[in-house]
From TrEMBL:
Cited CDD domains: PA_PoS1_like, Peptidases_S8_5
Residue ranges occupied by any C5a peptidase/Subtilisin-like protease SBT2-like Fn3-like domain in the UniProt entry: 615-727
Peptidase S8/S53 domain location: 155-572
Keywords: Cell wall, Hydrolase, Protease, Secreted, Serine protease, Signal
Protein name: Subtilisin
Organism whose genome encodes this protein: Cylindrodendrum hubeiense
UniProt entry tagged with the keyword Magnesium: no
Gene Ontology CC: membrane
Matching PROSITE patterns: SUBTILASE, SUBTILASE_ASP, SUBTILASE_HIS, SUBTILASE_SER
Top-level taxonomy: Eukaryota, Fungi, Dikarya, Ascomycota, Pezizomycotina
Length: 879
């Protein structure tokens, strides 16, 4: 079976561009022991609550917000916490009670970062974008932001709150100050530098960023003109910095709930967060809190997550919330790299031509000025420089050797050049971009580097015609950088393979749509180098927040439903790409929602749709007809054709298995057909028509594999209007799918990160009951959920040595259970022997009996729970 670990966190992640091969490290979600979020019933006295917790708990945060009243508390005595929590949850004043969960700090894939203390500048003649110069920044061109900016639309006065690591507001491109007349004009620090997700928060007024992520996100929205030649999507917005992370570590969902509510009450027009954790359930407390804010008229964008490799149904919190816009990532049309600037000359010309290269190891390039020499002039050679150079090769000590990448190792190429006396070697790429090479083991080589395939070809053609090409190398210490962009013909414009897939376990469409998130240049804290190129849905999400600001300036409204509908209807669905090639069919709706957003079309659309997507649910809950309305707000009558374009249908599960397939999921040919109440309508100026959509799900598919069908309804108007409405349904029953296999729970050691099973009957010596020896190896109770489960229960069952099969009675749940709103995959709990009621299980032999509620299951029906028993283990306590 396929085992995958539970992804629970990061939101700035990876690029799927071929030159980056980092693998995302998934971390388990964690709950903060003994900490709870308590929401009060509005208007009910909390004196009973205060009495109950008096002396038992400290208050972490108070939620005195219009949309969320309550507290988060930390019980002093962890042994009694869950017991007390159960009493509190039963109080009449308590509306909801949730465990505090902790979300990991966004961990971006850093493609390039500046050098602290160096003034970086793009050393091209044409650089800063100013009001009279066209915006040519590729993420802006791809999303039509350039067309809005050309009309002078800059998001003037719109307040955008960024929930993140803070913002380096002292950065010149981020306004240089914090306060009413500054770019970063509002916000606060909810946590303090030392907060790590587990300790106490020390709020203060200063949301300075000591991490980096938030400053990058802020620049994507609103960077001012700068030496690197780009601006944010909406440079005239007013930014709010709500800092929820310390300099290191994680953030609790109580802090995230407080930050969203504080931003809302401070009058934010748009709230964005590039943070999250895999789950698939819109009922998580943070998601619920964000949905409430959207219902009050504030659009909220949250990054969809970077777990695309996991497969379907991996929507992340809080992007999975109802009405929350979950933002997918598309790959940039260009490979973007900031390379140190050097120069070359041809023959005796005094003209120095600038170029960029990536330094290798070693990199003693400073002051090196030497002509190029190449072992061959063939720019298609696959094994350039792999063979020993012929005997008549000149002494290469006075040259930089130019070799094409491919076949043998860089070290082999460097050794062959060094054997002919070379001290310097420059590779040219055989793929997109450039990468750092390491030939430090080769004796005699003082510096190595790489240039792009295009530049390499240019050098070779000059050498071929007999020119002398002299490189005047820089070691990069002058801070001059060259923006190299090479067309990404492999994945450019497709959904980034790292972008997480929906839908939610309850068949809500996720993500909503996407924007470029791979290889994005933006601001970075000045102390960390001022600028950086990062990849992840963390980068696509703020772009959409900025675009919403632009649209609101054009349309004079921030109505979240209208904006979501406009963005979805005007987005362009893209062809599926598995990371290496494009397919003939559109990428499924659970991967790209409405598609790649088009800001200008959305801002000026006159034909509006009433929905951003249609979900026909699964077979048990099949919706046989859904309506949508087309409204013509223009001044002309239009004729509209309605048709549909199916995407490929995808199987959720592996064949003959209860386990989900991972990316790329298996495709199948069947597609739903849709019937419309009318397929040609005329809609008069100012009129609306309602269209009924009647789907016939595909037949003959393996329904037990949960095939998800999807597609786009095309709405084509005689005025040139071309809108699309994504739809989806599941040709199988989610309720009938097993969420937990009977043998998918086991015992491991708390010290074993791989969660490997220990042999049956393993004996653990636990710290004496009530002590907390953190060095002890505890039994790790491990479960592996095939699919998500809203509720996981566990019972501790004593096992008699003499009658191992005799059914004994549970002595209670292990402390920390139940586990709510579980994602699929493995998770574990280090167990010190404590039960939910606060007592410790006596020394003895036990097994753990689990049950997991099926999707759409009825908790009161025994048959709606999948059951599994762990192997036997035994515990005793240290003296
Ligand atoms: C803006 O760019 C244009 C075109 O490159 C240039 O002519 C103009 O001087 C620039 N304006 C400012 C204020 O830099
Ligand atoms: C450089 O000089 C060589 C040899 O004289 C000549 O063949 C070549 O065309 C020259 N290159 C350029 C770009 O003028
Ligand atoms: C540019 O130069 C700096 C400083 O020497 C170096 O640290 C960095 O790795 C270089 N960057 C590239 C892309 O080679
Ligand atoms: C699917 O049906 C279930 C059960 O009625 C419901 O809870 C869920 O919200 C539905 N999903 C959608 C997207 O309508
Ligand atoms: C769809 O609209 C029609 C009227 O155009 C109405 O009769 C019908 O009840 C609606 N159906 C749904 C599912 O809302
Ligand atoms: C509607 O427009 C889409 C996209 O341009 C096109 O693929 C489709 O064929 C058009 N449908 C009709 C019925 O014209
Ligand atoms: C662990 O023990 C230390 C003293 O040994 C105590 O200060 C601390 O509060 C205990 N922690 C927990 C979580 O019980
Ligand atoms: C575990 O211990 C029991 C009782 O001693 C024994 O019957 C059983 O065979 C043991 N199982 C294993 C796998 O060693
Ligand atoms: C106990 O149950 C196991 C698995 O169900 C079975 O293989 C074994 O024979 C049973 N042992 C006894 C003593 O009944
Ligand atoms: C907790 O449950 C165990 C087993 O049912 C019982 O022996 C113990 O007395 C209970 N402890 C408390 C504090 O209720």
């Amino acid at each position: 079976m396929v085992r995958l670990s539970l992804a629970a966190c990061l939101f700035a992640g990876l690029s799927s561009a071929v030159q980056f091969d980092t693998v995302e490290k998934k971390k388990s979600s964690s709950r903060l022991p003994g900490a709870y979020i308590v929401e009060f019933e509005d208007g009910k006295s909390t004196s009973g609550f205060n009495k109950e917790v008096a002396g038992q708990a400290t208050t972490r945060l108070e939620f005195d917000y219009k949309l969320f009243k309550g507290v988060s508390i930390q019980f002093n005595d962890l042994e009694k916490a869950d017991d007390l929590a159960a009493n509190i949850a039963a109080l009449p004043a308590v509306k909801n009670m949730w465990q505090v969960k902790v979300y990991s700090i966004p961990d971006p894939q850093i493609e390039w970062v500046g050098t602290p203390g160096v003034d970086h500048a793009i050393s091209r003649k044409k650089r800063a974008i100013n009001e009279t110069e066209a915006d040519t920044f590729s993420p802006h061109v791809m999303t039509q932001v350039n067309k809005l900016r050309a009309k002078g639309i800059t998001g003037k006065g719109v307040k955008v709150a960024v929930i993140d690591t803070g913002i380096d507001y002292k950065h010149p491109a981020l306004g240089g100050c914090f306060g009413p007349d500054c770019l970063v004009s509002f916000g606060t620090d909810l946590v303090g530098d030392d907060y790590d997700g587990y300790n106490t928060v020390y709020p203060d007024d200063d949301p300075m960023d000591c991490q980096g992520h938030g400053s990058h996100v802020a620049g994507i929205i609103a960077a001012q003109e700068n030496s690197m030649g780009f601006t944010g999507v909406a440079p005239d917005v007013s930014l709010g910095a709500y800092r929820v992370f310390g300099c290191d570590g994680e953030a609790g969902n109580d802090v995230l709930i407080a930050a969203f509510n504080q931003a809302y009450e401070d009058g934010a027009d748009i709230i964005t967060a590039s943070i999250g954790g895999a789950s698939g359930w819109s009922e998580e407390p943070w998601s619920v809190a964000v949905s409430r804010i959207v219902e009050q008229g504030v659009p909220c964008t949250v990054s969809a997550g970077n777990s695309g490799d996991v497969g379907m149904f991996y929507a992340s919190t809080a992007a999975n919330g109802k009405k929350v816009m979950a933002i997918a990532s598309y790959d940039n049309s260009q490979y973007v790299a900031l390379l140190n600037t050097s120069h070359y000359t041809v023959n005796d010309s005094s003209t120095k031509i600038e170029f960029g290269s990536t330094a290798g190891s070693p990199a003693a390039w400073g002051g090196v000025t030497l002509p190029l020499w190449a072992p061959n002039y063939d720019t298609t050679v696959v094994n350039g420089g792999c063979d020993a150079y012929p005997d008549d090769t000149p002494d290469l000590s006075g040259y930089i050797v130019l070799v094409r990448r491919g076949t043998c190792t860089f070290v082999q190429k460097a050794q062959n050049a060094a054997a002919a006396g070379a001290k310097y070697i420059m590779l040219y790429n055989n793929a997109g971009g450039t990468s750092a090479i390491d030939v430090s083991t080769v004796t005699g080589i003082l510096a190595a580097g790489m240039v792009t395939a295009d530049l390499g070809a240019q050098f070779i053609s000059l050498l071929k015609e007999g020119s002398t090409v002299t490189l005047e190398m820089s070691d990069g210490s002058d801070g001059k950088v060259t923006l190299t962009q090479s067309r990404n013909g492999v994945t450019g414009g497709s959904v980034s393979t790292f972008s997480s897939w929906g839908p939610t376990w309850e068949m809500d469409v996720k993500p909503q749509f996407g924007a470029p998130g791979g290889s994005i240049l933006s601001t970075y804290p000045t102390k960390k180098g001022s600028y950086a190129v990062l990849s992840g849905t963390s980068m696509s999400c703020p772009a959409v927040a900025g675009i919403i600001a632009l649209i609101s300036e054009v349309r004079g409204t921030l109505d979240p439903t209208l904006i979501e509908n406009l963005l979805s209807a005007n987005a362009n669905p893209q062809l599926f790409n598995d990371g290496s090639k494009f397919y003939d069919s559109l990428a499924p709706v659970p991967q790209q929602g409405g598609g790649f957003i088009q800001a200008y079309d959305a801002a000026y659309a006159t034909v509006l749709l009433s929905h951003s997507s249609l979900s026909f649910n699964d077979t048990d809950n099949f919706v046989s007809v859904l309506n949508f309305t087309i409204e013509n707000t223009g001044s002309e009558d239009i004729e509209i054709d309605i048709s549909h374009i199916p995407t490929t249908t995808v199987y959720t599960l592996i064949e003959d298995s209860i386990y989900p397939d991972s990316f790329p999921n298996e495709f199948t040919d069947g597609a739903a057909s849709l019937e419309f109440s009318e397929s040609k309508v005329s809609v008069g100026a100012g009129d609306s028509v309602t269209i009924e959509v009647i789907p016939t799900p595909p037949e003959g598919l393996a329904s037990e594999r949960l095939p998800l069908w999807s597609g786009y309804i095309a709405i084509n108007g005689s005025d040139g209007t071309s809108l699309s409405l994504p739809y989806q349904g599941l040709a199988g029953s989610l309720h009938d799918a097993q969420v937990l296999a009977s043998d998918d729970t086991w015992i491991s050691k708390s010290t074993d990160e791989s969660l490997a099973a220990v042999p049956a009957n393993t004996s653990f010596t636990l710290p004496a009951a009530g002590t907390n020896d953190s060095s002890a190896t505890l039994p790790a109770l491990v479960w592996y959920l095939a699919l998500g489960s809203a509720e996981l229960r566990a019972e501790v069952i004593p096992v008699s040595l003499s009658a191992p099969n005799a059914t004994s009675k549970s002595i209670g749940e292990p402390a920390n259970f139940p586990m709510l709103w579980n994602a699929m995959g493995s998770n574990s709990l280090a167990w010190a022997g404590k039960l939910v009621n606060g007592s410790f299980a006596p020394a003895g032999q036990y097994k753990i009996s689990y049950r997991a509620l099926r999707i759409f299951g009825d908790a009161s029906e025994s048959s709606d729970w999948d059951k599994s028993e762990s192997p036997v283990f035994s515990i005793k306590y240290a003296e």
